[in-house]
Write a structure and sequence with these properties.
The chain is an alpha+beta fold. It contains 7 helices and 7 strands. A hairpin with a 4-residue loop joins strand 3 and strand 4. Helix 2 runs parallel beside helix 6. The protein is globular, with a radius of gyration of 18 Å. The model has no long low-confidence stretch (mean pLDDT 94).
Length: 186
């Protein structure tokens, strides 16, 4: 009902309504995307993202919608890691093939997965990996990584852990300094 009210109000006032993936606007992710667009990685070979988080059983028990198919829409992959999946596709491009496994391993009374892994093949020929979970104690920082035949970059939370290219530029040192480990785990 609330979503429909928003849709109706936007239609009435002739304004655009959209959803966003806010992780795209984080400075480190924007820098990574720019490097991909500039061809810094050469041929893209591997993209990977992880969202290895922990949620207690109480987390699921207290929220009437959490862990339900109808209201949550999915588990660790759809709820917690959806922003990581978006970043991976934003960096690597569309996927042509996806295969994976899901399981509910650490929680009871939920209808959705708490652990998921996927392997992807992208339109550009690169391959990829997604790991999404709420079953990893105590929870680890989320990551996005892009690799190619001329460079590799790894971002953990908002920290650049790795930013290496076969042809370095003066801006590379600035990126490394600006996004050096500061944020830590979520």
């Amino acid at each position: 009902p609330r979503c429909q009210q928003i849709i109706d109000a936007c239609a009435k006032h002739r304004v655009k309504l959209c959803t966003i993936f806010p992780s795209r606007f984080a400075d480190a992710n924007a820098a990574l995307h720019a490097a991909v667009q500039e061809g810094r990685f050469g041929r893209l070979t591997l993209g990977e993202t992880t969202c290895k988080w922990w949620r207690t059983q109480q987390y699921y028990d207290e929220g009437g919608w959490k862990g339900t198919q109808a209201l949550d829409g999915g588990g660790a992959l759809m709820n917690q890691a959806i922003h990581n999946v978006d970043l991976l596709l934003w960096m690597m491009g569309d996927a042509t093939h996806v295969t994976g496994f899901t399981a509910t391993l650490a929680h009871e009374r939920i209808e959705v997965e708490d652990t998921a892994v996927a392997c992807l093949k992208f339109k550009n020929g690169a391959v990829g990996v997604i790991q999404a979970t709420t079953s990893v104690y105590p929870g680890l920082p989320k990551t996005i990584a892009v690799h190619g035949d001329r460079g590799s970059a790894v971002i953990e939370q908002e920290d650049v852990l790795r930013w290496e290219f076969s042809t370095e530029t003066p801006e590379d040192a600035q990126v490394k300094e600006r996004f050096a480990q500061k944020v830590g785990a979520s």
